Amino acid sequence: MIVVRLKGGLGNQLFQYAVGFALAKKNKDQFKMDLSGYHGQDKRRPYVRSPDIMQFSVSASVASEEEVQRFRNPFGLASRVFRVVSQKVFKKYYTDWHWEIMNQKGNVYLEGFFQCEKYFVDCFDELSKEFLLQENLNADIEPIVNLIKSMHSPVSLHIRRGDYVSDPRISALHNICGIDYYETALACLKDQIGYYDLVVFSDDIEWVRNNLNLSENTYYVSGQKGVSGSVINASQELTLMSMCKHHIIANSTFSWWGAYLNQRQGKIVMAPGLWNRSKDYSHKNIIPPGWQQIPILGY
Q1: pTM of the prediction?
Q2: Which CDD domains does the record match to this protein (predicted)?
């Protein structure tokens, strides 16, 4: 059995699910998700995460508490468990490609971030079906889907702020994509495709409106309500992002997946040339071949 521990936001969850799905397929083995990390979170924290991946059509079941304990504490069991712990033991597993992970057999417990398409690129067609939005959630955003489909050349623009700005520790590492990055990316894209419609996704729409000089043909998705009257959620936003023709992403796994799940031939993806400021974690494989990297000023 393959068990993968899911943690973080939706983008991280998709990477973690993808590596577990790919390994289980390779081994012709059972695959389950460990969601225990989302239980008992401190509600006073400014950013409480939830397993949003469950709003997609994932086929893996959730591992029981007993199964999780058996995998995390394998002492006394005859079966060998291969456990990848990203931050406590093997920091190099934070993002980069390590072929040995995909060679493991038997009972395997994976904990990490695995931010590299090499883990799952060979089974992308099957994996992409796992990440289709559930029918009721898809119906809820049908008017916005139709609007994007009506656009001549929709371009998704993702600006992530949130904890990248408010948390000093996280900001020191991840607060990279400033106004210069977005202005450069927009100019480069215009040189290549000419006219486009901009579809904006952000956790701080007010900041975007006040700081980025965007064209009149701009539609702000984040904060919009679906047919149900509820504000659309992360899984719905990511689905809408993937429906655009081209993408300008942040240094964020959320918009990485929004661009990656767009299966159009000839898509253009603009990505930051620097993913974070850390010297401990390698991100050299996070940008897929063919994506265009925009230099970050000062680096």
Answers
A1: 0.91
A2: Fut1_Fut2_like
Query: CATH number, domain at 189?
Result: 3.40.50
Same domain for 145 and 110: no
Distance CA 40, CA 24 (A): 29
Look at residue 92 and tell me whether its pLDDT is greater than 50: no
Q: Look at residues 72, 101, 127 and tell me which one is the last residue of a structural domain.
A: 127
> Looking at the domain assignment, is residue 203 inside a domain?
yes
- Of the three residues 94, 127, 160, the one that is the final residue of a domain is 127
